[in-house]
Every structure is written in C-alpha cells, then in structure tokens.
Amino acid sequence: MERILYEVKRVVVGQDHFLERVLVAVLAGGHLLVEGVPGLAKTLTVNTLAKTIRGSFHRIQFTPDLVPADLIGTRIYNQKTGEFSTTLGPVFSNLLLADEINRAPAKVQSALLEVMQEGQVTIAGVTHRVPQPFLVMATQNPIETEGTYPLPEAQVDRFMMKVLISYPTEEEEFVIVSRVTAREQDVSAVTTTDELARLQRHCRECYVDPSLVRYAVRLVAVTRSPARYDMNDLSKYISCGASPRASIHLIEGARALALLRGRHHARPEDVVDLVPDVIRHRLSLSYEALADGVTADQLILRILKRFPPPEKVLESHVRIDANA
C-alpha cells in the first residue's frame, strides 16, 4: 500500500487526507462520496490508482437525461441473427468514478447504489457479478449549486465515508502547475487485483478490542437518542441519527487505517480519526440546525468531546488476545 501511495503521489499533489481515505475504502471494501468543487484531482486520483493496481477504470458523467441502462447495460437486438445480446455497462470495472452523481434523477442514482450494495446486476433475468475488488467513488456538487438532485438519506447511507475536499495551498498549487506544464509522469503498476483482494482479506484479520467496538456503537447511538446520553441540546438539531452501517464502517475503516499505519491491531485514534468522515453524511439535520448555521461536523465534535475514546490497548495484550 505504501508503494501504491508513492505512485499516486507522483501525480497527485497534496490531498493527503483524501488519498488516505481512498486507500482505507479500497482495503475495507467500501465506497466513497466526495464533495468538492471541480478541478481538485478527483478523476486523476482514481484513474492513477487504477493504473497502479492493473485494474479497469471507468468514469460516468451523470446528467439529467441519463437512464439506468447507461450504467448497468442492456439487451440489444441483432437484426442479422434475430437474437438478443447483452451489453454490459461501465459499472463493470474495478474502479468506477460517478462524477456529479447528484445531477442525475433518483432512478439512475438508485441503479448505481444497488450495484454498490449487492455487487451484481440483473439484466433480462441473468445475474452478472461486477469484478472484484470494486470501488465506487461518487462526487457531488455542493447543495447550493443549481440543477442538482440531493441524494436521499437511505441512499447516502450506503457510502462508507463522505470526504470533503478543499482548495490546495499556494505552495501545493505551485507544484501542481509545475507538474502539469512539465513532462507527463509515468505511473508504474505495483500490484494486481488478486494481491489487493488478498490484502482485503488480511485487513479483516486485524484485531479490534471489544472496548473499541462498544465505543463506536456508543458514538452512533448518541446521534439517535441524544437526550438519553445527557446531550439534550443536540436533540433539536438532529432529526434522524446514523444507522448501524455507521458502527460497522467505523470498525472496518479502523482496521484498514491500522494496516496502512503498519499495525495488526486498531487503536482508539484510528476510530476517532474516521468518525467525521463516516458519520457526517448519515446525520439528518433539522430546520433549526440550518437556521442556526450548525453543521454535522460541529455536532460530531461535540459528541467526541463529551465521550472520549477508551484508553489505549497494550500491544502485548493485543497479541495475547489475537492468538487466543
């Protein structure tokens, strides 16, 4: 994974937080929802990542006139043979970039999110499995932009993380301009999809202490019933809390982050680092929160201050429990 990150960093400048979350999603087998303005290397990142793992890459530009068949494929009639043939859509790839997903209507969004959840497509009664590993990175415009269809809460919940991307610094932008205007960088393939699948299986073997699982469940439970945990001031701002998928993705992401950081066990900081990205898109804010200018990230920080993580687990204790 370090070699993959090194190759990607040869092309992509800055965006360290974003790149780390992309690798976490790859190892954990999750999907990413990315929000940011155009021109911040979202397409370049996924395309470069596909080259480093010798995987297939497709990009879909979502538009209001898109139909589900443009994504998953359809049956085509051949007049010469008098038979139907199946043409598979661009979702059949290892890395899929769904650009500006909130510009397409709900029917198209549901078609993509069904593939993300089930990992398969049914066309004319025949089921087709998407290749593994399979990662979807969907980008969306800020909600203030005109001509967008906000994703329903039930569909957004299927994304493992929502990552916010900001503009680069002046120093980073100087390097970006220098690289783009210079000779194109060649990206080497450092791994295969089979090796990546083996890393994903290895990631699930990382040890997670039960206290960290309880902590993840507690954080998610607070978003559903703030008054039960003596946080009555949050009740008026949250109309709907996070689902159990948030707890699952917190633990799966902590395992992947621990592996990226060179460990075979998760630590409290691994869980805490992922809390904003995993929970922010799962909170449905009330109209009162919008009126007061309260964001999901602000509410998450208040919950983290109120409920600190458990003490660090000793590595010797971890090894004993893992062997047991």
Automatic annotation (TrEMBL):
Pfam families: AAA_3, AAA_lid_2. It comes from Noviherbaspirillum galbum. The keyword ATP-binding applies. PANTHER family: MAGNESIUM-CHELATASE SUBUNIT CHLD, MOXR FAMILY PROTEIN. Residues 236-300 form the ChlI/MoxR AAA lid domain. Residues 31-161 form the ATPase AAA-3 domain. Belongs to the MoxR family. The lineage of its organism: Bacteria, Pseudomonadati, Pseudomonadota, Betaproteobacteria, Burkholderiales. This is AAA domain-containing protein. GO terms for molecular function: ATP binding; ATP hydrolysis activity. Keywords: ATP-binding, Nucleotide-binding.
